[in-house]
Amino acid sequence: MAQKASLPQLPNVALEQIFRNLDFLEIQPVRKVCQNLRSYIDNHHRSDSNLKYVSITVERGKFNVNYNFFDEQNKLSVVYENLPGGCFVQSQINGILRETYLEKQDSLEIFCHDFHNFWKNQRRELISFSVEFFGENENSEFLNQCSSLLNDHFPIDQFHLFVTTSNQIIPILKKVDPRCIVINNKNENSENLEFQDFMELNQWRNAERLFIRSFAISAPIQKFDHFKKVSVFFRTASWDDVSYLKEASTLF
């Protein structure tokens, strides 16, 4: 009796026929079977991630990611958390719960590997991308990874940031290209937000809408006049600022 070939032993023609009938989420578990299948999928069958919304929460040693897709049938949420001796991964695909413990692995490393696989295969503009931070200094490693994790100037309609310090804004913002920027300060005490570095970004010049909450703005009011819609807070305003706003409002 002839021995049946396993999936990694099938010729590329047969693999292509199989993967053609699978969507992006269905292919992901196959990538983890072995190195040969992972290499074939990454090099020969890069299907569209088809992402619509992505949200990430960042804590010390823990990352929670939610993916929503344009087909609106598939939903995926994944939690990566460091535990003694390794990383615990809990995923829920369309209501099906899966749990894995990866010995001697780090949550940031596993999260980055999985997220990058989704991000590099995204072909169209995201409707919404959200990142929320818990804590301050413990998130520095995640911010350092952003340069390699995100594609430069990836188009996004709405970009939401929930930060605990203003230092968390630019490292992520400079990697994407949103039409709408929403920045929320999670601290109760509103700190001054210095805009010099912010305003030098192309993202500042290209955005159409800007909403900044619980930060006090320190910048010339004229720097905001290219936005179609703005919601910001100034601690003080000069008479010249008021006159400028009054004159600008009569132009519309």
From TrEMBL:
Domain of life: Eukaryota
Record domain F-box: where: 4-54
Listed name of the protein: F-box domain-containing protein
